[in-house]
Amino acid sequence: MQYNYENYLTEMKGKLQSAHEVARQKLISSEGKSKENCDRDHERSEIQIGQRVLLFDETVLRGRTK
Fold first, then answer.
1. DSSP annotation string for 1-65
2. pTM over 0.70
3. pLDDT per position as a tens digit, 8-62
4. In the structure, what pLDDT confidence band is assigned to residue 64 with cuts at 50, 70 and 90?
5. What is the DSSP letter of 66?
6. How far is CA 21 from CA 15, 27, 28, in A?
7. What is residue 37's predicted lDDT score, i.e. its pLDDT?
8. 36 vs 12, 16, 30, 43, 56, CA distance in Å?
9. Where are the domains of the chain?
10. pLDDT of 19
11. Do the beta carbons of residue 47 and residue 53 sit within 8 Å?
């Protein structure tokens, strides 16, 4: 069999599709694990009245405030 540009292109397209599917499955799995960890952390950390909390304000420029 002669190996030419079309064969190479078809082979690479198949490899890329396979790699994309593996990456997509791993991303879905990772998102599920991340959500479980986040939910578990939220269950443990409830804010009580009088506690100090750290707030993030996007309008405050970093390094330019007191």
1. ----HHHHHHHHHHHHHHHHHHHHHHHHHHHHHHHHHHHHHHHH-PPPTT-------TTSPTTS-
2. no
3. 999 999 999 999 999 999 998 888 788 777 777 666 667 788 888 888 888 877 7
4. low
5. -
6. 10, 10, 11
7. 78
8. 36, 30, 10, 11, 24
9. 1-37
10. 97
11. yes
Phi-psi region of 47 (alpha: psi -120 to 50; beta: other; left: phi over 0): beta
What's the CA gap between 25 and 30, in Å, rounded? 9
Under 8 Å CB-to-CB from 1, ≥6 apart: which residues? 7
The single residue listed with the structure tokens 């990772």 is 30
Q: What is the residue whose two structure tokens read 């007191």?
A: 66
